From TrEMBL:
Species per Swiss-Prot/TrEMBL record: Pseudomonas capeferrum
Protein name listed in UniProt: DUF3077 domain-containing protein
Superkingdom, natural source: Bacteria
Amino acid sequence: MKPPQNDETDLDSEAARRALDYYLNPNPTRPSTENKIWTLHEGVSGEQAQEHAIALLRCAAATAQETAVHQQGTQRELTFALMHMMDMARALLEHKRTAQTGL
């Protein structure tokens, strides 16, 4: 037997879900010039940013290589391709650094 329904006190489940979503799960704000995901500290030079990018690419490529070693087939090939693209990007940055310093 169903309990009696009281229209005055029972909430519509869809309306309740929307209300809870509105307050508990707000839409995330989109990144903008004022609201960035991350930013560089003031005073970081272009050369410092380039060196850091080279180091990040080196670490990412090493991680991809270690991951690929434990994979097989297409997944292994895709991971090695990703590693190769990171190595190419790093080589371009290193080339630019060498050209700037004249070494």
